[in-house]
Write a structure and sequence with these properties.
The chain is built from seven helices and ten strands. The chain is of the alpha/beta class. The structure holds S-adenosylmethionine.
Length: about 260
């Protein structure tokens, strides 16, 4: 049976790649590499750099495929569902047409596959379609949130306190209930600008782990506009941006377990 290895490759620094991931890469006959746009070109190049550096066994075959863009015509959930189905159909075709029954395929996933990534959902979709049989396993990777916290030298959570991981789209609607620590990803709309809390602090990072890394932190009221300026400049310079941040506001005494 075909075997798929879903390999977390870290969030931008080739040195995030774990020894488990190196061993998994070296076990692959074929690697699927997505390509699309300026951002994806950088990601595809990083994937190649990782492979060149860490694959020391036989060379795998590279199969490039173009990732379809998500439609903005239908509602968010429907468009994500349609997008996943389209990617699942591509995986199915590639598995059936480019991979022998006894071969191992590597899917290199940015950061870790468990965090804001749909590879595992899409593979289950392919499996449910029943056209191609395969087994798969998952190799964890360093996430962008780990890179953010390491860069700022902060723990993700305060003692005994919860953290919510959310999207810019949701933060723009409101600060989540019952938490004072919010990690935000996928924020194309600068949702931190909508937070109106004079005590909130932000730890922001873009292109974490890459040579383009930028980090800023401070009271949101003092530094929010500076982040937006730096963000716009970096985005114009590189043609794309990936950023994430942690927002913290003072916790009420009663919120803590300790
Ligand atoms: C589709 S999610 C993938 C997350 C990934 N699976 C992980 O483990 O970090 C993409 C989002 O992750 C965040 N992200 C990923 N890599 C990043 C990096 N190197 N620097 C800053 N943010 C990053 C950004 O918020 C971006 O919009």
């Amino acid at each position: 049976m075909r075997r798929i290895r879903v390999i977390g490759i870290g969030a931008g620094n080739p040195e995030h790649v774990t020894i488990q991931a190196v061993n998994a890469l070296n076990s692959c006959d074929v690697l699927f590499v997505p390509t699309k746009g300026a951002e994806k070109e950088f990601l595809a190049q990083l994937r190649h750099d990782i492979c060149d550096r860490f694959i020391t066994a036989r060379q795998p075959r590279y199969v490039h495929f173009s990732v379809p863009t998500r439609s903005t015509q239908s509602g968010y959930e429907q468009s994500v569902g349609e997008w996943h189905s389209a990617i699942a159909a591509i995986y199915e075709d590639l598995l059936a047409g480019q991979v022998e029954e006894d071969e191992t395929v590597g899917l290199l996933v940015w950061g870790d596959p468990m965090l804001f990534d749909s590879t595992l959902r899409i593979l289950e979709h392919v499996r449910a379609n029943g056209r191609v049989a395969f087994d798969y396993d998952v190799i964890p990777g360093i996430t962008s949130l780990q890179a953010l916290c390491a860069g700022h030298k902060i723990p993700l959570n305060r003692i005994g306190m919860p953290v919510e991981i959310t999207t810019g789209r949701r933060l723009a609607e409101s600060w989540p209930d019952n938490v004072d620590d919010v990690a935000v990803m996928l924020d194309g709309r600068r949702a931190y600008e909508t937070v109106n809390d004079p005590e909130a602090v932000i730890y922001w990072g873009a292109y974490l782990g890459t040579p383009m890394e930028i980090r800023l932190d401070g009271r949101l009221a003092d530094i929010g506009a500076e982040i937006s300026r730096v963000r716009a400049e970096a985005r114009a310079k590189h043609g794309w941006i990936m950023d994430t941040y942690l927002l913290r506001r003072p916790a009420k005494e009663s919120d803590s377990d300790q």
